[in-house]
Amino acid sequence: MLAIIGGTGLTQLTNLKISHRQVMRTPYGEPSGPMTFGTINEHELMFLARHGYGHTIPPHEVNYRANLWALRDQGAKRVIAVTSVGCIRPDLAPGMLAVPDQIIDYTFGRSFTYFDGKDKTVTHIDFTKPYSEKIRQQILAAAKRAGEKCVDGGVHAVTQGPRLETAAEVNRLERDGVDMVGMTGMPEAALAKELGLAYATIAVVVNYAAGRGNSRDGVPLETIGAVISPAMERVKSVLEFAVSGDGD
Ligand code: HPA
After folding, report:
1. For the CA atoms of 35, 36, 40, 45, what is the dihedral angle to 10 degrees?
2. What is the predicted pLDDT for the residue at 246?
3. pLDDT tens for residues 176-214?
4. Nearest-angstrom CA–CA distance, 105 and 89
5. Nearest partner of 102 among 125, 127, 72, judged by Cα
6. Which of 51, 83, 85, 201 to mutate to test the pocket of ligand 1 (most atoms within 8 A of CB)?
7. Are 76 and 196 in contact (CB under 8 A)?
8. Domains in the chain with CATH codes
């Protein structure tokens, strides 16, 4: 089954015909909220709001391990994660959608693996390609069918938050080859990989990163809401086409 993780601005899927909600517990604690099950165009899926339904859980306090575990426990095989980002690459601008193909992880202090504990044998995962290429292509094909422009590829940096970056940090990210920066993509992507879930991200550009574009003298946080709402409507229409993809 497909699972959708909603980020900032996407705490519910209004086009989802809800069948039921389920409170979940996992060996790693409680996920961000109850799992919502339902259908879009007859296709079954489950939905989880990463920051909780009231948007109360900041990026560094999300229980990523519980979230991914709960999705898998309920039969998810594919995951489409929606996340907001600031843009660095010059051809990106607020309001645009992108499907990144690489990640650089700048987070710290988060519970980032299922493979810890002294009683477990040492386990590594290959993370050369952090996202499922199949799911990425499904999202891009869905965007095409929905008539929504969606940038194919890009390096997604994940910072610790909850503060935004300094201008110098954004310059460093650019030197590192980063195209867009958010706060929630890791350890989510790595945990999905550890669980064998096919996972990819729709990144929604909601601002110019610090020191760039109209964020030259500060990120205008008060304008982000006006960008997010219409962009998330476009994400929803992409998702309507993405739910019909198979691809486990
Ligand atoms: N930086 C980090 N995370 C973000 C940003 C940003 O500029 N915009 C949205 N999430």
Report:
1. 20
2. 55
3. 999 999 999 999 999 999 999 999 999 999 999 999 999
4. 18
5. 127
6. 85
7. no
8. 2-242 (3.40.50.1580)
